[in-house]
Specification:
homodimer, TIM Barrel, 395 residues, 16 strands, eight-stranded parallel β-sheet
């Protein structure tokens, strides 16, 4: 039984309080808390206090984080990037376990305590990336809670054998059923989405499908997904990642899709890329659709960009959607905290008694400043234990 | 007469060399240079070497940098922001000299050695912001070369007296004639652009006009500007800042405007905002139009965003235009180095013998890594003198 008292911190930038942590839970939040005998004491020095940050969509298994610079000379299409990645892997030098561990550690140092990561599955690599990600999850158990999505990056219906591999991954402990562009990548949309829902039903797991398809093509795929979500009553069990089509179809059609998404609590995970149409944040929010954030790939063969810092992603969500007011930047923070916890189904989340003691102390005056300034993380607490101090991981 | 030798640095990530600085100029770049007797020696430890970064468009006079957090509760339109700023100033607490100095110092610490900054002029504040910016320029003379644009933020034709104030600012040492949205803000486009060209001719100074106007309205203003640029043979003397219209008109109309811009060497300064249409970088570049980068406002009443770091701006330019390949990220770097020096008319710029010794040493393997990773600036040299070390200003 261990107690920890963190003195003089400002939850979400409000008035200073103390926080009592008992084992892995928040046991008290109030000014002038009495420390139990033997409790460890941390002085917050008036730091901004946030709940542990949540990464809602990344690809730990693909990252090159911690290695020497990868020179990107790839063609311009998504299929160029998929094919390049497959070729890159064939030489066998990519160590998904080592790289995913390095990146996950960097996430924790930046205050992330929960994460959903997609692990590639295809008929060439089989479950190698799933197993590598699972090793990282075991190594970091207690420091970061990790969901693994069984993700058919190269297609499902178009590569026979993939569905069986996904089935095996879910039996072995993958947390969600992934999918990708049923028309554009798989070229047989009904066959893919039927397979996804079959796997989800069989294993009682949620679905999280990459939907990059633009305009009417994406809207058609989304319609197929919503049809099955309703038919199987899978309320709150489906996430649309990216959903670019929602940023490029007619308003009336978009609003009709959003109304169905709200009805069935189908969520959107967004990276808010600056160079693509995106689901319009204000409109989705007003329609009652949960929108949360993710970095997508961090420094891999697809992209040189992104940082293992969810406040940086909140900033990009704010920039993409022209969120300038302080109250709007609170929404951007929700995308990488509470909304992401709801979206992924992480439990006991937040800054309240009874929540898991996942805490970040930051050098910032307000939430808005924390988002725009990439502030130093003075302290990270994961499930009641100090895991990082001043940006340095203690694991 | 002072000499400085910087050992073991990699220009643009190439092979390691030494750099000899004599007074304020680069006097040699080669491996194994002999240091003149009495020369100061700096060890680069294989750092990436770039020329001093160039800020092509900012507003030092508006920033709140270094103060307590400004809570933004402003309405959604550009005119809301203009009116809010005017009201904010009326209480008299904004000290443009102190704030602009704080922000300019932060720019230098991040390796910026040349800058173009717009200073507000209107009939309420007169030349107060111009004078405040000039004080900062004097204070930092030798550490950063600063151009000041006489900028009629609240309109020119619509506020009688503004043209006289701009005339006075140019007589007192402002370097360029600013303008803003001749239709949308001034509501009398010919009167504004005629005034701008009249001031430019009288003082022999370039024009740099904010053109936020979207679509056909912006294209009309741009047409008026190009017409006068040609009539007065002002080749290489005009910059269009923002130029959002070039991202939202028909391709054929856009290409016709770009061809005229290339013919008269009319440049584009872009912040590459994620939430607006922007001049398409690849298309502009292919058309032979110089595109360079600027942060626009950094943490002011308009926006909480932006950092006094031109590599961060290069990253946003890359993200907005989907520049992922290493060779494409070289273009993003050009936007905040050589293209910005050309665009603003800064002389003796670059990493070559005879150029002014403005140098940045960074902890990065490649140019691309420098752009995406916000690396530590080991050393900044401004006109031959060390001005910052490990991010700490020595002024």
């Amino acid at each position: 039984m261990t107690d920890l008292v963190i003195r003089d911190v400002r939850p979400f930038g409000g008035d200073a309080v103390d926080v009592l942590v008992h084992d892995d839970l928040i046991a008290g939040i109030a000014a002038g808390l009495n420390a139990p005998p033997g409790a460890a004491i941390e002085h917050g020095h008036n730091a901004l206090l946030l709940p542990g940050l949540v990464e809602g969509h990344t690809h730990l298994d693909k990252t090159l984080w911690g290695g020497s610079w990868y020179r990107n000379e790839i063609g311009p299409t998504r299929n160029d990037r998929i094919e390049n990645e497959r070729a890159f892997r064939r030489d066998g030098s990519h160590d998904a376990a080592t790289r995913s561990l390095a990146l996950a550690r960097a996430y924790i140092a930046h205050g992330t305590t929960r994460m959903r990561t997609h692990a590639d599955i295809d008929t060439e690599i089989g479950l190698r990336h799933v197993h590598a990600t699972m090793r990282t999850r075991e190594t970091l158990a207690g420091a970061i809670e990790m969901q693994i999505v069984a993700f058919p990056q190269s297609g499902l219906a178009c590569r026979p054998g993939t569905e069986d591999l996904m089935d095996a991954a879910l039996r072995e402990g993958a947390d969600a059923v992934g999918g990708i562009d049923p028309c554009a990548v798989d070229r047989d949309p009904v066959r893919q989405v039927d397979a996804l829902f079959r796997l989800a039903e069989r294993h009682g797991k949620p679905i999280d499908i990459h939907l990059h398809e633009p305009g009417e093509m994406g809207a058609f795929s989304l319609d197929l997904i919503l049809e099955r979500t309703a038919a199987l009553s899978m309320r709150g069990m489906v996430t649309i990642s990216h959903g670019f089509c929602l940023g490029s179809i007619a308003d009336a059609e978009r609003d009709a899709l959003l109304a169905r998404m709200a009805l069935w609590d189908v969520r959107i995970a967004t990276t808010a890329p600056a160079s693509s149409p995106v689901p319009p944040f204000r409109v989705c929010r007003a329609a009652g659709v949960t929108v949360y954030g993710g970095n997508d790939g961090v420094r891999d063969t697809w992209t040189p960009y992104a940082k293992p810092d969810m406040l940086d992603r909140a900033m990009h969500i704010g920039l993409r959607n022209a969120l300038r007011r302080d109250d709007e930047l609170d929404w951007a923070l929700e995308c990488v905290t509470s909304a992401a916890a709801v979206g992924c189904g992480f439990e006991r989340y937040g800054l309240a008694v009874g929540c898991r003691a996942d805490l970040v102390l930051l050098e910032a005056e307000t939430v808005a400043e924390a988002i725009v300034s990439a502030p130093r993380r003075r302290l990270v607490v994961s499930a009641g234990k100090v895991t990082a101090r001043d940006g340095v991981l203690l694991l």
